[in-house]
């Protein structure tokens, strides 16, 4: 299953904190019924490519609800045809290879 990493940065806020925007992102992903993992700098989401792209648009638009005039959104999509891929499996493989 494809993975999308999305990072959203509101620009021009008085405060350097934007945890409220991140909460909005998590709520949006949950409303779409997709599995996700929050990281310190981005959110990784599992899903088919087309729904992921629609979700990215929703996340970007909803970020403006927090009273900002500019939002920078960066996406990375990791998709494989040779074998299935899930977040949990990818993380487990790395941890296993690292001897943890």
Characterise this structure.
With 100 residues, the protein is α+β, with helices and mostly antiparallel strands. The chain has a single domain (3-97), classed as Alpha-Beta Plaits (2-Layer Sandwich), CATH 3.30.70. Helix content is 39%, strand content 25%. It contains 3 helices and 4 strands, in the order βαββαβα. The protein has helices at 19-31, 49-63, 87-97, and strands at 3-11, 36-38, 43-46, 70-78. It has a 4-stranded antiparallel beta sheet with strand order 2-3-1-4, with helices on one face. The mean pLDDT is 89. Belongs to the UPF0045 family. This is Thiamine-binding protein domain-containing protein. It comes from Marinithermofilum abyssi.
Which CATH top level class fits?
A: Alpha Beta
Q: What is the count of distinct domains? A: 1
CATH architecture: 2-Layer Sandwich
Ends distance: 25 Å
Structural class: alpha+beta
Low-pLDDT residue intervals, each spanning 5 or more residues: none
How much helix, percentage-wise, in residues? 25-40%
Strand % is 25-35%
Mean of residue pLDDT values: 89
Walk across the major sheet and give the strand order: 2-3-1-4
Tell me, briefly, the overall form.
globular
Total DSSP helices: 3
Computed over alpha carbons, the radius of gyration is 15 Å
CATH overall fold name? Alpha-Beta Plaits
H and E order: EHEEHEH
What is the number of strand segments?
4
User: For the report, how would you describe the main beta sheet?
Assistant: 4 strands, antiparallel
């Amino acid at each position: 299953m494809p993975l999308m990493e999305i990072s959203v940065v509101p620009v021009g806020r008085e405060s350097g904190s934007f945890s409220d925007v991140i909460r909005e992102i998590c709520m949006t992903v949950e409303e779409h019924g997709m599995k996700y993992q929050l990281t310190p700098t981005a959110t990784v989401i599992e899903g088919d490519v087309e729904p992921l792209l629609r979700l990215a648009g929703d996340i970007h638009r909803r970020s403006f609800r927090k009273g900002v005039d500019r939002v920078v959104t960066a996406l990375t999509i990791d998709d494989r045809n040779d074998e299935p891929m899930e977040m949990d499996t990818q993380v487990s493989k790395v941890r296993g290879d690292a001897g943890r």
